[in-house]
């Protein structure tokens, strides 16, 4: 593994695992704050685009942890429990990506791959007329 890739992975693991000295967040409190903020984001989308709009929440494993995937699944399940059946969860495997963009972000090639996979997912959603 290249040194730059190793640094990116270690830095991201620290962010996701909350293991910095003096860190105020625990993994549980960070996940809860993330879910709360994401629900607020979905509330704003619902208010702007209306209850008939289909929304897709996507996630992938990052830095060897399923923390964001688990949070995304939970958020979509909580919305479904509230009666919002037009929010869907979509997972895309990060193992297929090269993360060649700046600071471990997806590259242009990665974005094309993700777009192709997402298009296939969207085609499979039921139409709501």
- At the first level of CATH, the class is Alpha Beta
Indicate the CATH architecture.
3-Layer(aba) Sandwich
Biggest sheet strand order reads: 1-2
Note the total helix count: 4
Residue stretches low in confidence (pLDDT < 50, at least 5 long) are 1-15
Order of helices and strands: HHEHEH
Structural class by SSE content: mainly alpha
Please state the overall shape, judged from the principal axes of the Cα atoms. Answer: flat
Number of domains: 1
Major sheet summary line: 2 strands, parallel
Radius of gyration: 17 Å
| Secondary structure tally: strands | 2
Q: Key features?
A:
two-stranded parallel ribbon, 129 residues, 53% helix, Rossmann fold, 4 helices, flat, 8% strand
């Amino acid at each position: 593994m290249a040194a730059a890739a190793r640094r990116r992975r270690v830095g991201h693991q620290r962010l996701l695992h909350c293991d910095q000295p003096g860190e105020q967040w625990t993994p549980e409190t960070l996940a809860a704050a993330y879910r709360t903020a994401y629900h607020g984001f979905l509330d704003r989308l619902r208010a702007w685009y209306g209850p008939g709009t289909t929304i897709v929440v996507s996630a992938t494993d990052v830095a060897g942890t399923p923390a964001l995937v688990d949070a995304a699944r939970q958020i979509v399940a909580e919305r479904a429990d509230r009666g919002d059946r037009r929010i869907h969860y979509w997972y895309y495997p990060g193992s297929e990506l090269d993360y060649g963009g700046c600071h471990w972000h997806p590259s242009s090639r990665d974005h094309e791959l993700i777009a192709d996979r997402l298009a296939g997912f969207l085609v499979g959603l039921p139409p709501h007329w």
